[in-house]
Design brief:
5 strands; TATA-Binding Protein
Amino acid sequence: MGVALSANLATRFEDAVACTRKALVQQGFGVLTEIDIKATLKAKLDVEMEDYLILGACHPTLAYRAISVDRQIGLLLPCNVLVRADPGNPGTVIVEAMDPGILLEVTGEPTLIEIADEVTARLGAAIASLADGCA
């Protein structure tokens, strides 16, 4: 398995963000944070770049289960979902999330690995649904 779960969408950036939010909700995630890197870099450094948004997604039930096993797991929460314009391919938006299983495998805690597998399955389903069509 790769490091990222991803989908390339042939749509407007704003539509990709809306579809990503909807797909996450359908899998039980909420978006806790939103970091607009493009706007931040423009404001702080006066740098121009393509649309680049990080959504901090959290599945409350799974997060609670993980925190109940290991309080330090909060260092890995929430799950970041990146929505970004592809600078090399205008009109394409890339949606990516890191495979949570990769980070949690290092803990060696079997219960956390089981939870990470479920988070990975849900994030994967959300992103796969985007590849099936973002309307």
